[in-house]
Every structure is written in structure tokens, then in C-alpha cells.
Amino acid sequence: MELLRLAGLCALCMLPVTLLRKTAPEQALLLTAAILSVTLARCLRLAAPALEEVRALFERAGIEAAYVSVLLRTTAAALVTRLCADLCRDGGSQSLAAAVEAAGALAALLIALPLLRAVTELLLGYLG
What is the 8-class DSSP label of residue 83? Predict the structure, then answer.
């Protein structure tokens, strides 16, 4: 139900954003960023129980908490990257959007390094 309200909020806010884009593009971008912030905060609040469930499932399966953390942080980095890149595109800057996407890819790689290290050690253990 909450997701329908958030979708309704976003749809409702499209009219003022569209109107502002013609006369005051800076204000349209600020309004878009504000709506995005509210929506993201509410989504995070809604996702908290699901994240706890994922942690519990991984714990029951015997998977280390560090690996769950890598999964969740990589997902968060991808979502933040996507939202920021889209916001840059809405502001009319394709090059900034590309830079944000490159930074997001690098962030995901850096976040996943402990997992890559563990897989490498596991493979070397089998081979050695």
C-alpha cells in the first residue's frame, strides 16, 4: 500500500516539475531532488524488515555476515548511482551522468573486493 502512495506522490509531482521545467529549470531540478529524497527515505524505511529477513536467511544458511554486507552495500551503491545519474540527466548533463555511473561502477568493485579476495583464496586452496 505504501508503495502505491509513493508512486502516486511521484506521479502527482510530475505536473509541477513539468511546468517548472519550462520556466525555471533550476527549481524543477531542486523539486525533483526533494521528491527523490523523500521517496528514497520512505523506501529505505520500508525495506528495513526485508533486509533483516535477508540477513536471517543468510545466517541460517551459514553464510558469513560480511558477505551479506557486501551484497547489500553493492545493491545500495547501484541504486544511488542510478538515481544520481538520472538526476544529472534531468538537469541536462549527460557527461555528469556518465561520471556518476563510472564512479558507481568503481564503488561496486571496491565494495566487492573482500568477496573477490575470499573467492580467490578458496580457489587457491583447492588448487594448492
Answer: H
What are the distances in angstroms from CA 70 to CA 2, 7, 20, 63, 104?
Answer: 28, 29, 40, 12, 14
Q: How many CA atoms lie within 13 A of 116 on its CB side?
A: 7
pTM: 0.72
Contact predicate 33/86, CB 8 Å: no
Q: Residue 38 in contact with residue 68, Cβ under 8 Å?
A: no
- What digits encode the pLDDT tens for the residues 9-33? 888 888 888 888 889 888 988 988 8
Q: Are 37 and 26 in contact (CB under 8 A)?
A: no
CA distance 84 to 101: 8
Residues 85-108 have a mean pLDDT of: 93
Cα–Cα distance measured from residue 70 to residue 82, given in angstroms and rounded to the nearest whole number: 18
Which cell numbers in the block locate residue 106?
568503481
Task: State residue 85's pLDDT score.
Answer: 94
